[in-house]
Write a structure and sequence with these properties.
By secondary structure, the chain is of the alpha+beta class. It contains 5 helices and 6 strands; from the N terminus they run αααββαββββα.
Amino acid sequence: MTAWMRTRTALITGLTGLLAAGLSACYGGGDGAPAQEEPAIDLAAEEAAVRQVNLTWLERFQARDAEGVAALFVEDGWTIGDDGLRDGRAAILADMTAEYEENPDATADWGAKAVWVAASGDLAVERGWWTVDQDGPGEGEADEGEYVTVLVKVGDQWMVLADAGGSTVPDDEEDD
């Protein structure tokens, strides 16, 4: 081994030792220093926060607040359903605005069946049901379906990344 290789090996070994000692002191195990604990994620509280986003979305939808609905999404969020893809917050806003104009009497309701929050506390998936009656109560039949929504934590706020849903009414019943 050349002198340069011995010096390099000694340097790497020394730096590795210093790094290990520094990490050990910071995270416990060295010189009696207490281990630093990661803050515990309160998954029940996070689930409740995700469910609140769902309720807020429904309230804004029923109030015909297209801007408020779009604001629940991350900038590059998307929705997809039987009627196609809306990619990005601007597309979601445009679609919601058009939907309210085209169907002024429409009613909607939905709710979560299950919410799963990742142990990291920054990703959640919600699965649920929905009912939409485009011409309002009393006229034609309402459409029913199910959805899956993916939410991400941005700072301390849950935001929608993706929402996908589809009708569960068989095609032959929709035409009646």
